Amino acid sequence: MQSRRNYQRPYKELFLQNKKAWARRKRKKVEKRKEVEDNWLTYFHSIKNVCPWSYDSYKKGRIYITDFTKAKVIETEQNWNMDNYDAVVYLTDMPVDELDKFVEKRNRKQTSCEYLWSHPKFTKGGNKQTNQPIVIQQDRAFLTELRENKNGS
Q1: Which of 36, 72, 135, 142 is surrounded by the most beta carbons within 10 Å?
Q2: E-strand stretches of the chain
Q3: Residue 106's pLDDT band (cuts 50, 70, 90)
Q4: Where are the beta strands (DSSP E) in 5-152?
């Protein structure tokens, strides 16, 4: 008959191995999240000349980044307010033409939000496109005010 102490040793070794594996996975997740955050920070910094407030807004946590679904976009649009976020960025896998048509349609069908998009395979000249396709949802009145103030100064 084995003593209780012999049973505990394999359990402790197994526990430590699992704990080390868990710590490795956790560290990788944190590193990946940091890498993603650094990519977004770099992107918002790169577009400061066309969207001056986006960089500060991102640093303050006022840009919400989420996966795209048409239902989610429309629901957010219908309940739009700027209390929590200045903008919502939807990650998608749409090709350029589909992205352009979706954004054009949303901009035409409602007046509360303005939609913009970015795609890695398309640039209007500044090479400031995102590394994955996105739809950007922002407050139309706020953007209009910012543009008028920029042009008026």
Answers
A1: 135
A2: 63-67, 87-91, 113-118, 134-139
A3: very high
A4: 63-67, 87-91, 113-118, 134-139
Q: What sign does the dihedral 47-52-56-62 (CA atoms) show?
A: negative
Q: Which two tokens stand for residue 46?
A: 């790169």
* Helix axis angle, 70-78 to 96-109, nearest 10°: 20
Q: How do beta strands 63-67 and 134-139 pair?
A: unpaired
User: Is residue 134 within 8 Å of residue 118, measured between CB atoms?
Assistant: yes
Model confidence at 146, pLDDT cuts 50, 70, 90, reads: confident
Specify whether the CB–CB gap between 106 and 140 falls below 8 A. no
Edge-first strand listing for the sheet containing 113-118: 63-67, 87-91, 134-139, 113-118
